[in-house]
Fold this sequence. Notes:
Elements: H1 6-19, H2 23-28, H3 38-45, H4 49-61, H5 64-79, H6 84-87, H7 102-114, H8 116-133, H9 160-182, E1 190-191, E2 197-198, H10 205-224, H11 231-248, H12 256-262, H13 268-275, H14 280-298, H15 323-330, H16 335-341, H17 356-359
Helix pairs in contact: 1-9, 1-11, 3-4, 4-7, 5-8, 7-9, 9-10, 10-11, 12-14
Amino acid sequence: MRGRCFGHTLNLSAKALLFGHNVEAFEEQLSGEAALSEAEHTLWRRKGPVGKLHNLVVGVRRSDQLTYLLRSIQRSEFDLSSDPRIRARQPVDLIIDNDTRWLSQLYMIRRAIILRPFIEQLVLKHRQQWEQDNRSKRTGNLRKSAREPRICLEENQLTVNDWVVLEHLAKLLGFYEDSVKTLEGDGQQRKRKGGWVGSYGNVWEVIQGFEFLLEVLEDYKQLASEIPAAEHFRININLGWEKLNKYYSRLDETPIYYTALALHPAFRWGYFENEWKDNTKWVMKAKQMVREVWESDYRHLQVVRSPVDDEPVAKRQRKYYNPFQAYCERTRLVLGYGLVKEEATLSDDINEEINELGLW
């Protein structure tokens, strides 16, 4: 039996969110060259707002003229401000993505959203300059041989609805980023900054990671239905959900995830009974799997009690740095405190940040 890599599963789901069907076939059609061919440009554009943004970013980053123009537009805007903090800002460049690597796409989208007003000015100024350079002095008309720059073509423009989709994608992929970062680590309890004791990469949080992201995607299904002209977004949210749910349904191929969560003193079976209250068969199957692990691997072992440590139990983290951590905290059960009170004396304050693992 083996545990699946949660990060790999998220990668597949995030790619479906960004690029839709047949991601592997799409990747194979990309040459990996710095400059986009006409065929690759068309392929990316068909991927909706993300593809259009990719084409724009590549066009700007591969042109010194456009890169310097974007910086100049920012500098001019900053210099006009009466706020000294804004005047002190330095121009930044667009972030070019690494083809279909979803985190690089997220960073590209975030930077583009920040630079949106400057990008719009850039396209306008670039078109004006192109028209000026390609207008006949004799007739005043554009030369027939003049070829409009890609970033100025109407079909390549990011519409208002495209920007709305990009903003939602940035938020949605931010939840994926939170989950990946929280589940990166070796699962070892250590004293962290601020004095709290905790760990990253905990196996018991994998089920919670799936539940958290599936819940987020359900919310975005409803939200996407209310955005006009966002067919790519609506379809891709469903595809991302399906990919995530596919691997979630395979967790029962190994009992480690159920066992780790069920044996955690802050969650135990209360987590399953609460989160899966509409799927009692799932709870029964999880209990059966954990029971089988107990019978086959642990029942015959001799119980050895560790010496009691008189040192106070370190407190858990009080501040949560991302929504996934907050979700995990929300699903901790008050019942968990009652279960451990039989073995130790705790504060009467039920809100005290007790480290149940340390106490256990």
